[in-house]
């Protein structure tokens, strides 16, 4: 990156040889399609990378708000509508997850009981 991209934090990564922004059609024709063909991934579309990214976030357990923010969506509702099918099978084990959570909370609240000496057992008046 240091060799090909300017140090400016707003510098473009993919530019023409003149340093101007690449047009989508030129990028697709000159770079994307040859790379996809070489990798044996045709007919992968560039926009499908976005869907892959969002799907991986969901699979990693990111919550709806995180996914929406990281994907740059206009709202969590948009994300939910578009990707709801990726959450659909998550409710299969919800009862077991809830039982485990409740059991962990129940057992963590049990503090060891220590006997007090006789002088501390008197109730204040």
Which tags fit this structure?
125 residues, single chain, mainly alpha
pLDDT < 50 runs, ≥5 residues: none
Count of DSSP-assigned helices: 5
Secondary-structure element order, N to C: HHHHH
Shape: elongated
Distance between the termini: 76 Å
Number of domains: 2
Query: Main β-sheet: number of strands, strand sense, barrel status?
Result: none
| Structural class estimated from helices and strands | mainly alpha
Instruction: Evaluate the radius of gyration.
Output: 27 Å
Number of strands: 0
Question: Could you tell me the strand content as a percent range?
Answer: under 5%
Mean pLDDT across every amino acid position? 83
Q: How much helical structure, as a percent, in the residues?
A: 40-55%
What this model shows, in words?
By secondary structure, the protein is an all-alpha fold. It has 2 domains: 45 residues, no CATH class; 62 residues, no CATH class. The chain has 5 helices and no strands. Helix 2 packs antiparallel against helix 3 and helix 3 crosses helix 4. 4% of the residues are buried.
């Amino acid at each position: 990156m240091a060799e090909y991209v300017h140090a400016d934090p707003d510098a473009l990564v993919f530019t023409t040889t003149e340093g101007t922004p690449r047009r989508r059609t030129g990028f697709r024709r000159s770079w994307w399609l040859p790379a996809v063909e070489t990798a044996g991934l045709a007919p992968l579309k560039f926009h499908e990378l976005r869907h892959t990214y969002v799907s991986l976030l969901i699979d990693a357990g990111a919550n709806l708000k995180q996914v929406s923010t990281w994907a740059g969506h206009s709202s969590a509702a948009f994300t939910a509508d578009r990707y709801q099918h990726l959450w659909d099978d998550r409710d299969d084990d919800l009862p077991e997850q809830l039982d485990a959570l409740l059991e962990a909370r129940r057992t963590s609240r049990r503090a060891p009981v220590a006997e007090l000496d006789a002088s501390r057992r008197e109730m204040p008046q």
